Amino acid sequence: QVQLVESGGGLVQAGGSLRLSCAASGSIFSINDMGWYRQAPGKQRELVARITRGGSTDYADSVKFRFTISRDNAKNTQYLQMNSLKPEDTGVYYCNAVFRAATTLRYLEVWGQGTLVTVSS
Partners of 92 in the beta sheet? Predict the structure, then answer.
């Protein structure tokens, strides 16, 4: 009933920029934390950045000062602005959200389908 749809991935040269978007839709009362994770080939999924409903942010050390997470609560959408991209940023990026369901008010978690980011050297 609730889904996250990502967009914005693609191929970029090292030093370039990309902006990912993730829109939530469905039976949502409110969204608490939102975040971005990534999974490189042969590696485990890792946290990239997360943001609370109030706007507090947290970043992986490897992306600090290069990536910026933001959200638009009115649109149930989060963004990840990625600058100064490096080949090691390559991977599938997944968005995540913890939300309260509109019908039950239970807290639930949902993942996006993933979008591929490839950074060439």
Answer: 39, 116
SS3 of 63, please? helix
Q: Which residues pair with 109 in a beta bridge?
A: 98
Burial readout 94-121 (b: 16 or more C-beta within 10 A, e: otherwise): bbbbbbebeeeeeeeebebebbebebee
> Which residue is listed with tokens 């993730």?
22
β-partners of residue 5 are 23
Cα distance between residue 42 and residue 61, in whole Å: 20
Q: Tokens standing for 92? A: 């599938």
Q: What is the pLDDT of residues 13-43, one digit of tens each?
A: 999 999 999 999 999 999 999 999 999 999 9
